[in-house]
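OP here, attaching both records as promised.
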Amino acid sequence: AALLLNFGDFARFSRNERSMKIGNFLGLPVNFIVFAIITVIVTAGTVQVFGKAIMDPIEIVERIGNPWVVALGSITFIVATMGINIVANFVSPAYDIANLHPEKIDFRLGGLITSILSVMVCPWIFVSSPSAITLFVSVFGAILGPMFGIMVADYYIVKRQNVVIEDLYTMDPNGSLYFEGGWNRRAIIALVGAGIVSIGFAAMGAYGIVPNGGDWGWLIGAVLGAAFHVLLMGRSPVIVPRTAGAAA
């Protein structure tokens, strides 16, 4: 869910659309398929070696017992944890915080602030029990779902892929993206409305009220967010590029 929202933070460095598509193809379907195959093979191998299927890679490494294998596995887990968190949870908020005051805060300082805040929220509390982490992940996805739906609907349906690039970087009240005092209130209403439903659904799923409800929180939020946004923005005029070179 997080990567779908902050994908632009990485894609904007692509030299062209072709390189972006190649990166997506290798990083998503190819990587997922290869990873899934390796997971199945390793898990199946644990049945032959240890007599039961073990899906936890840490437990597998622990059972091997070889200190060199344990050391290599530990380093691998540390690097993997750092890598996925930098990509999914560090870059985007660092840019967001820097954009709050670009004259004073650059990406490096934004990253430092992100690191401090990440400790202050006490993330270890959320992983203290299986139910806690399930609730956290379900609700987190349910929050990001409406954001994704609104972004996609706004670009492809409301604006029909026509965006005035210069208006993305201006606080001019006459800009096409300034709306009401710099806030698109209709998008906020769509976000809150869809979020209430998706978060409630995910929470009920985490507590067992709705079977597997947490698995659907993100999807429900994305669909409702997109639908609410399109309905609320229905009377908004389609953005027409001022010049041929100003739109994307």
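Record two, same layout:
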Amino acid sequence: MKKAIQLLVIALFFICCKTNSSAPKIVENNEPTFAYKQQIENLEKGIYFRANGNEPDWSLKISEKTIEFASSKQGYEALNGNHVEPIRGIDANVKMYQVSTEAGTMTIQIMQQECVNKMSGDKSSYSVQIEILKKNQSIHLLGCGNYITDPRLHDIWVLEKLNGENVTVENFTKELPNLEINSTTNTFMGFSGCNKMGGSIFFEKGLLRFTNVVTTEMACRENNKEAIFLKALQSTTNYKVENLRLTLANPSGSELVFRKVD
């Protein structure tokens, strides 16, 4: 009996060893995703607009310092130049960049209108036209693009000043107004001083707007400054991020100063 038990233990040992040796090994993939790599590049290079198109495949990156074009078409593989300020349309949201280099000239037109990539079906908020002239030969390209919302906005912010004056909880209900901005989805949520709020953000280089703002409908006491806060928020056109502070302002003088809390 004792010998039988020993043989059983030995058999089980070999079965376990065989099972472990044949078990598939799980290999972890620690390679950063393409989207993550783009986010890092956007942050490091200050890229604020990206576009691409097909037939031929091409891509465009506009940063604070450079404008970079690349394509699969022979003779037009790359064209890079220094950043230039765009010419702005009068009646529509249209911008035109004119880039001159030793290799050729490039004219880029960016128009705010829904654009659908013919190959992927992806939708973008801007249509892009590019014309490149090299040695009396030109190429005309169409594609789609989007502005890259400043990633520094992606955080939680609590109101510190309203139109130049420090605020306290006594100016609102229970807590100070706050914003949680998602720069990836271009949305925000938070507390407006009496009610919960949410909405969208519209971003272009040098322009920030809070749009489609909705709030709950709790009754507020008379001295609550929520209405003043919401009016200033919805009239925002520009911003500044420095020293862990977010300043929202507009040409009329309204100003909100938030401090970073996350």
